[in-house]
Hints:
single chain; alpha/beta; Rossmann fold; 2 domains; five-stranded parallel β-sheet; two-stranded antiparallel ribbon; Ketoreductase domain-containing protein; oxidoreductase; SDR_fam; NAD(P)-bd_dom_sf
Amino acid sequence: MASPTPSYTKLTYSATYPAIDPTLPALSTSGKVILVTGASGGIGRAASLSFAASGPKSLVLLGRKPDALAETANLVRSRHGDLAVETHQVDLCDAPGLRAVFDSVASKLGTIDVLVHCAGVLAPVVPLMEADPATFMDSYKTTVVGTLALAQAFVGANNQSAAGAAGHHLPKPDHGRHPVPALPRSSRRRTPTCACTTFTPADFLVWIASPEAKFLHNKIVFASWDVEELKSRETAIVGGPPGTGELWLGYQGFPRYISGQSLGRP
Length: 266
């Protein structure tokens, strides 16, 4: 029998639900450029469809497999025929190629408003002494080093785009606000044997990139958690001084001081 699944919220979901419906006006991405990595399949394809439903200005899909990437694009176009969709075949580990793609997108479309990072390689989950170093390194290179290259390309291209548009008094892109990481592959509700569909985390990604979820900046959350309960706990989650609040990783009791100033902990 599987162990009970811990959760921050009383309610958890294994299927999408009204509060994270990407067609909600509050979750609209109208006028925004959305870029999705790992769009060839899985959560990346699902996220592409969910963000397409939120009504962006443009949807940019990245992936390594051209045929699968084209299939995702065709699925989006079949449901949202008026949406501008473009695809780019690129490997996250190809830093120059990645930067070229981002520079091209930003030059043509302007600031990339939301980056949804769904690409990565998960090494087999086995006991440490049974792990294959070669397989582990392949996962590390793609998931960690590739993510570094992605962040550099994203920020660099947006900085360049903002600098070029400075004469038009456009707002500077908020790099810390909108990058959205991939979420857990599965989540559960009440029965631990119920696997969720990809549309729970995909629709949740649209919500997490919306103004409603601004209070979760720099926090760690699960796609299965009930967003209404999360919003009701905004004060506790945000906290006060740095190092306070909930849903963040750190040392218990650290920090107590910043620049010699006490954070007021007993």
